[in-house]
Design goal:
Length: 187
Amino acid sequence: MNATEAIYARRAVRDFTNDPVPDATIRQLIDAAIQAPSAINAQPWAFVVIQDAALIKEISNRAGDLVRGKDIPEKLQKAIDDPAWNIFYNANTLIVICARPQGAHPDWDCCLAAENLLIAARDRGLGGCIIGFAWGALAEPDIKKKLGIPEDYQAIMPIIIGHPKQFPQSPGRKTPEILAWKVGAHV
């Protein structure tokens, strides 16, 4: 699969087999992630890899606790109240891209790294999905401490990775809105 094919084939995967993702593969994904550009070459990213089902479930439960009873859609509230609910879709690998507080836009840089990681995962036959619902839990001081995330670092991209049961079909893309395309005289 070439880069363009991987970009077009990448989809958010939320249903995985129980097959573990090998350590060597995770290292390859992280190496692909750090090839991303970063503002003034700060390379502010740091990674947490979690392959402990109980810890992943604990983070999922904390994320639910943080929004339980708040103004959220009823469907989401029912899902959170189900003891089997898991925001990580029972994936066996969670990679959290964290930002060190350095550079012009460490959060943007980590987003670029995340896309590299997801494209590299697809190229290797793996699926992944960014789980934004986890941000609140990953910002909690006790969770950060448990994961070894320094206080001044910020969890930017929680990404589940695994062997998909199947790759979802493309939901299609809207035609891009091009606000302007200005062409001047060519030299």
